[in-house]
Amino acid sequence: MDTVGTLDQEAMKRKERLKALREGRLKTLNGNSEENGENFPKPLFRNYTPNDDELKSNILPKPDLSEIRNEIKDQLDSGKPKSLIEKEIDLATLAPQKNRLGS
Asked: Does the pTM exceed 0.85?
């Protein structure tokens, strides 16, 4: 019977959270309410250089392309097929095999 009271309490908490979300407020686990616009993530710029001095600190450094080129070259070299024929075959002396079905 104790679980019924707990379920009712949980349902009331859910209703309060939904009501708070509808009103535009978000309650944290500590019980403090925060506004939605305060905690935006900082932008990181890979290709864009901003004009604002405050945003220039968020520019990511350029990657070293020589490392990437070496990795790509290694992958392309490992993907080349190896020749199945190790010796050169003279096509002039190459004769078809005899048919063994009839013998």
From this structure: no
